[in-house]
Amino acid sequence: MYRAPVEEIAFTLKHVAGLKPALDAGTFGDLGEDLVDAILAEAGRFATEEIAPLYKIGDEQGAVLSGAAVTTPPGWKALYRRWIDGGWNALSAPEEFGGQALPTMLGVAALEMWNSAAMAFGIGPTLTMGAVEALDKHASPALKAKYLEKLVSGEWMGTMNLTEPQAGSDLNALRARAEPAGDGTYRIFGQKIFITYGEHDFTDNIIHLVLARLPDAPAGTRGLSLFLAPKFLVGDDGALGARNDVFCSGLEHKLGIHASPTCTMIYGDGFEGTVPGAIGWLIGEENKGLACMFTMMNNARLAVGMQGVAVAETATQKALAYANDRRQGKAASYDGDGMAPIVHHPDVQRNLLTMKALTQIARAISYSCAHAIDNARISSGDEATHWQERANLLTPLAKAFATDVGVEVASLGLQVHGGMGFIEETGAAALYRDARIAPIYEGTNGIQAIDLVARKLPLGGGEHVRGYIAELKAVASQVRTSNLQGFGRTADGLDKALDNVCEATRFLQGLLADGRSDEALAGATPYLRLISLAAGGAYLARGALADQSRIALCRFFAENLLGEAGALKERVIGGAESLATASKALISAGTS
Amino acid sequence: MYRAPVEEIAFTLKHVAGLKPALDAGTFGDLGEDLVDAILAEAGRFATEEIAPLYKIGDEQGAVLSGAAVTTPPGWKALYRRWIDGGWNALSAPEEFGGQALPTMLGVAALEMWNSAAMAFGIGPTLTMGAVEALDKHASPALKAKYLEKLVSGEWMGTMNLTEPQAGSDLNALRARAEPAGDGTYRIFGQKIFITYGEHDFTDNIIHLVLARLPDAPAGTRGLSLFLAPKFLVGDDGALGARNDVFCSGLEHKLGIHASPTCTMIYGDGFEGTVPGAIGWLIGEENKGLACMFTMMNNARLAVGMQGVAVAETATQKALAYANDRRQGKAASYDGDGMAPIVHHPDVQRNLLTMKALTQIARAISYSCAHAIDNARISSGDEATHWQERANLLTPLAKAFATDVGVEVASLGLQVHGGMGFIEETGAAALYRDARIAPIYEGTNGIQAIDLVARKLPLGGGEHVRGYIAELKAVASQVRTSNLQGFGRTADGLDKALDNVCEATRFLQGLLADGRSDEALAGATPYLRLISLAAGGAYLARGALADQSRIALCRFFAENLLGEAGALKERVIGGAESLATASKALISAGTS
């Protein structure tokens, strides 16, 4: 069972992702290391002792729909109550509405722990926090006053309603419509699918944020507006009133995260005697819904990245424990009695070290992204621009690389368990199932790679990414000048990988400048993995420079896993033409 | 839904794996291309029309245990009956007992189709065929006379009972025991787990092959004997008699292949009033059970490799169909109305081409292994030795590489479906679940890699593998001298990859010669993937030389996927030391 790796998390925050220098510099006011440690320890305790024990029943029983009501698995509602009573929902929410306004870095670290303990639990509050951010930034004072405090405390939860059957990755195709009622409110009609925690029994009210089109709105995403539609209308005194016409009509039968209800939501069908048309309030300006929604989406992407880190961590712990317990065969390095624990077999070691290294890298990238978000918020001028660009650059890495790592590590973890891994009771298979959604939702990883190449490489006139690579190169130099023997060929490996990143970056920036974006996009996915691996190697090295007990794993990564960078660069630079040529045969007659 | 790719299979058999030259040379007597095509077409029809439609109910309802009886999903028993009535069980079985004695190549091609249509169906007869082979090679004439004909026809099914809770990969630790009854029979006692189709309702009798220890047998695998224990005793007239004391006490709750009953079998507990002790007959000599079992295991490994190919094929078909149907966004290459089918997006194309190329490669390696098995059987002297070594070399590649490909391709296929992929009804998730067992059973892929390095590289004094690489190099030369433009940098890529294989092979052979086997084993898994990718590239090229419409995919593979070879070679050659150093931290106090 999962035990929150509080020390590892604290180390990565402080010594790899930049929290220690920030605390020392007073960046976060009087927030000090002691308080950080105390918060992490308590979050770790909650995740380990309260959430993790409810994982299995959540997976086995799942959320259940009866009529339009969803019941969460036994014990989950009480768990959620204990969780908000602990103040965890408010951790990085604005103080004005009762939040603790702690750094995103801390919020993200805690989020990792909730998701490690049970991803189906961790996902719910993520949506609430997205709603808080969107309302805080874009809503009218009246809406804020009515909803934010209860969303910050967690007394109500929020949702994010984008997807429709014909519109997943492409929001241009959204059809849900909103009609002005003449009294400042709107009536919303349409169907939304894949709505996470769209309906449940955790809270008395659920606050839906919905994208819809006003009459005469322009086609495409420029005609989308964002609305707030609560499950129950809320009086000026905060009391719950009539049931709004938004109902759950179905739950998806999913591969994993069974306890998280994935709902089809019907707006405006006059269900259960309601007046047809879900009553909604505009958030922000008309036809500017997408910008408001992006506030939610960017941070949701980092949050999904944390799910990748989280599942990878749990899978690694589980496999490591099993490998130390299970005995099979003989091993040269084992001189005890009887069969050797399988952790002594080189092939098992390779799997476990790969899992550890990838998990640490995904964590370091994600925390560094949170660090940039924090810095962007508290700085101004050029500095704020710099950190916002950094956050923007790292978000697709955190989302896509970390969630790919989640799948990869969960699969390796299952493999370490041998035949037992395929048996559901062991628990390794459930992680393999849960992990698989994260590369898909909040923008598929393919779309993250396109975002990285098409929108993030050009940041700062192309200079931002070059500056980032230069920072990573400086770490390689530090390794070299450290003269520490244990690093082996780490510095060479890092330099080579970063040279590959430079070359691939220049190449893609050149294609974009020439308007050859299809060729650039053909290399987007390999490029995302390339820069992530190289950055990850540098982060491992930074950690190893701060704590020499970490050198061995860093070296393993550099000498065993970082070599992939060369092949990835070749794909970016030389893969597009053959991809385009071979793809002709993929297209069926009639669809071309 | 799956449609058997009969043409693709026939092409690979004939023009890549060597069937056409063999048929032309009369290697298989009067077997001609027409009959081969007819058999493949009819197998394809059966898989597509009869098996595939029952996949979903098999996955959803699974096999069910009640008392000690297992019921297969609705329709499956009748399906099995139609399948044996078609003669499919007897396809490559010995003629003496009613088999058709067709080449293993054909048997393996048909096996791919059964498994593509429903892996949980395809796995059952694989065990029966293993039992047929073991009995045919090692059993007494009396046992053969009593059991073989009905196992060949499929009227009875066979099983393979090795694993016990404490003994999975390490058969030394087996404890099941067999006591001589004094009348030439034995009484077997013990528990076996993970027994595929150990109990079911397909057939009236089930013939278990069981490894157990005689009293006073030496410890370890040299003390294992193989026994035949039928579910019902069989009279000399072939009539079924008393129930034998071997019972199913539990079914595993598995991640995938739900319709395949995975049984815990209890021998000798006197269940249901039977006389305690399962009555068994010795197969082969006392204490030579492992050698007999290996007859089953080697071919079972190729059969499991086919499951990897099979799932990859189905996943690819499914993703390709979805990508041509689902529309999202705009694409430069699409000038039709409305949103573009997602197959027009370069990132989706990259996934689909990767899936196609990996599937074709895994198929080519596996069929080539079958080709070697066929040639070994029908030739003699040095030639037989050569082909047996080739079969031995390719078996771990077929098993491990193809099943890794199965998981990789099923995961990519799920990704192509976006959010729909995570919904069970879509069917992509089920393939991702099914695929995951194949890298584990019949010897984990880690063990296959160890087998490859420790036992297969030394074949023929180390010459055999070098000869194989030389054959692959000749294909690269043919590509170069063909001067066909469409190949792009294929020849260069192949040469480079094969040079990497050469270097890695020499390096590992050197370590083995120096007795540094732990260092060699650290690189075993990367080496297996390295040689598989390089061989696969050569097989794709061989196919492309025979049919130029295949050049584009071959080039895509060479220019996009084959580059991984360089990194794999580096891992083999330079990865062991850092792996050993970093692994120290994996071992818990108390287990070292």
Automatic annotation (TrEMBL), chains A, B:
Residues 472-581 form the Acetyl-CoA dehydrogenase-like C-terminal domain. It is an enzyme of class 1 (oxidoreductase). Residues 38-155 form the Acyl-CoA dehydrogenase/oxidase N-terminal domain. Residues 287-454 form the Acyl-CoA dehydrogenase/oxidase C-terminal domain. InterPro entries: Acyl-CoA_dh-like_C_dom, Acyl-CoA_Oxase/DH_mid-dom, Acyl-CoA_Oxase/DH_mid-dom_sf, AcylCo_DH-like_C, AcylCo_DH/oxidase_C, AcylCoA_DH/ox_N, AcylCoA_DH/ox_N_sf, AcylCoA_DH/oxidase_NM_dom_sf. It comes from the Bacteria. It catalyses: 3-(methylsulfanyl)propanoyl-CoA + oxidized [electron-transfer flavoprotein] + H(+) = 3-(methylsulfanyl)acryloyl-CoA + reduced [electron-transfer flavoprotein]. Its EC number is 1.3.99.41. Keywords: FAD, Flavoprotein, Oxidoreductase. Gene3D superfamilies: Acyl-CoA dehydrogenase/oxidase, N-terminal domain (1.10.540.10), Butyryl-CoA Dehydrogenase, subunit A, domain 2 (2.40.110.10), Butyryl-CoA Dehydrogenase, subunit A, domain 3 (1.20.140.10). Residues 160-266 form the Acyl-CoA oxidase/dehydrogenase middle domain. Its cofactor is FAD. Belongs to the acyl-CoA dehydrogenase family. Involved in the assimilation of dimethylsulphoniopropionate (DMSP), an important compound in the fixation of carbon in marine phytoplankton, by mediating the conversion of 3-(methylthio)propanoyl-CoA (MMPA-CoA) to 3-(methylthio)acryloyl-CoA (MTA-CoA). This is 3-methylmercaptopropionyl-CoA dehydrogenase. It comes from Mesorhizobium mediterraneum.
